[in-house]
Amino acid sequence: MVIMNQAEEIIFANGIQFRMIDDPVVVEVLALREAINWCRDHAFTEVRFEGDAKVVIDKILLADARDNQMGAILQEFIQCFACNPGFSVRFVGRHNNRVAHLVARKALSLYPSMSRVFDYQTWLNSRM
């Protein structure tokens, strides 16, 4: 999860390990949930969320929560975006999302030894 301001400066980055989940779509949904909660907890009112899991973004944009694995979380997203007019979501292909791709690649290289103490912010700043 990478939070950037309008000037595209990183203001927060965090790697989250979801144990025992091997479906990348489910991981994408859980990561988006973490990002939404972080932004709400920090009183952000205008946020554009971006993700590279097209199926997830399409379900949110179409308000389609029909999914056996993640329907309840998709419904949370749909309600969140309806109640927060400053929140939006869009699909960004991995090849166009350099920062998220760098974080994902680093996270994969650390798995399964990834620790919550890894400082993604410092690591990302060294790559920018």
Automatic annotation (TrEMBL):
UniProt organism field: Linum trigynum
SUPFAM superfamilies in the cross-refs: Ribonuclease H-like
Pfam families: RVT_3 (PF13456)
Name by which UniProt lists this protein: RNase H type-1 domain-containing protein
InterPro entries, A to Z: RNase_H-like_EbsB-rel, RNaseH-like_sf, RNaseH_domain, RNaseH_sf
GO MF entry, a single one: RNA-DNA hybrid ribonuclease activity
Residues of the signal peptide: none
Domain RNase H type-1: 1-107
